[in-house]
Design brief:
By secondary structure, this protein is of the alpha/beta class. Helices cover 36% and strands 22% of the residues. It is built from 12 helices and 14 strands. The protein has helices at residues 10-26, 68-78, 93-104, 146-150, 153-157, 170-182, 196-201, 213-223, 239-248, 293-306, 311-325, 338-343; strands at residues 2-5, 31-35, 39-45, 62-66, 82-89, 108-114, 120-126, 132-137, 161-164, 186-190, 208-212, 254-257, 263-267, 276-281. The strands form 2 sheets. Strands 1-14-13-12-11-10-9-2-5-6 form a 10-stranded mixed beta sheet, sandwiched between helices.
């Protein structure tokens, strides 16, 4: 397994960021589209996550913009890539709040629809170590149907890359992927929240798959139904076996995020049937809150692929932005612009 070490090496991070900046300046067609969820995040910080049935005292409740797809779109847009979102908001005050914030971050919001219900929301608990628990209430996100996506097909066709996750109905995700595939748009799928049916039906449409270590273990159990649920995946796992199993499932380009241990990228070149496995060691950070870091990583992958970066370089870009996000509170509120992130590595 190869290793790209971004740990305590600001020069390596600068190189990735400068390569991205150069590629972005040279492409006039670096457009991305994200189809999916927008949520209001109700977040409370506690000393520790409560056990089942336990009550703990937390700090003040904050309401921040979130939703996996919205997070991913904001992360990509803040990096300078023209990014549009296709989704559904409700008829409540949160709808105005969420759409206004997206526009403020530079996201193209013309393909957002409205449903006569509440907007999506998320209940998040963050402990003293920055770890979190998340419960999602879909709200208007559940009303994003196939017809709504078809009506925005022109927006999809203009993009180079599409980002998808599973916080909207599966038929909608599948229709989005089908439209993208028909028009040559690369499809990046975040298999989260994990859904075994989705893993099966989306195999033919995922140009790049993004999962965390838990989702990857769930995915591998789809291949071997009798496998014990206790399997854990770490940076020290046998990645050649994991890569081969992912390929048997139909996924040849995969980014597996491992939290503070960075990510492992499984790829394949057209001249080699053997998988290429690369470990990207994440830049060191003083962690405040990990909420939305995975989405920031995916936003980086989307942005990198939109400007033509190879998958490992795009994963390095995502790792740099994810590490930056971990140093702030909330999801979108912690995301930096390209200039802000770049300045962190100039000293």
């Amino acid at each position: 397994m190869k290793t790209v070490d971004l740990g305590d090496k600001p020069e390596a991070c600068r190189l990735i960021l400068e390569r991205f900046r150069q590629a972005l300046s040279q492409r006039s067609d670096s457009m991305a589209v994200v189809v999916g969820s927008m949520n209001a995040d109700y977040t409370v910080v506690t000393d520790r996550i409560p056990l089942p049935g336990e009550t703990v005292v937390g700090g003040p409740m904050s309401i921040l913009p979130g939703g996996k797809s919205s997070n991913q779109a904001v992360a990509s847009a803040k990096m300078g890539v023209h990014t549009a979102i296709i989704g559904m908001l409700g008829d409540d005050e949160n709808a105005e709040f969420l759409e206004g914030h997206l526009r403020q971050c530079g996201v193209d919001t013309q393909s957002i629809g409205r449903a006569q219900t509440s907007s999506g929301s998320t209940i998040i608990t963050v402990d003293a170590h920055g770890e979190n628990t998340i419960v999602v209430s879909p709200g208007a996100n559940a009303y994003l149907d196939e017809q709504a996506v078809e009506a925005c097909s022109a927006q999809i066709e203009r993009a180079r890359v599409m980002g998808l996750c599973l916080e909207t109905p599966l038929p909608t995700v599948l229709k989005s992927a089908q439209i993208a595939r028909q028009t040559g748009v690369e499809v990046v799928i975040n298999l989260s929240p994990f859904n075994q049916q989705a893993a099966t039906v989306l195999t033919s449409y995922a140009d790049v798959l993004i999962v965390n270590e838990l989702e990857c273990a769930d995915l591998l159990r789809c291949e071997q139904e009798n496998e014990q649920s206790t399997q854990t995946i770490t940076v020290d796992s046998d990645w050649h076996i994991i890569a081969e199993r992912l390929q048997r499932l139909g996924f040849s380009k995969v980014c597996i995020t491992l939290g503070g241990d960075g990510c492992v990228v499984v790829s394949q070149d057209e001249h080699n049937v053997e998988p290429i496995i690369t470990h990207v060691a994440v830049p060191k950070a003083a962690v405040v809150d990990t909420t939305g870091c995975g989405d920031s990583f995916m936003g980086g992958v989307i942005a990198g692929r939109a400007v033509g970066m190879d998958l490992v370089s795009a994963a390095c870009l995502g790792s740099i932005f994810g590490s930056y996000a971990a140093q702030g509170s909330g999801a979108q509120a912690s995301y930096g612009t390209l200039e802000e992130v770049h300045s962190q590595y100039l000293s």
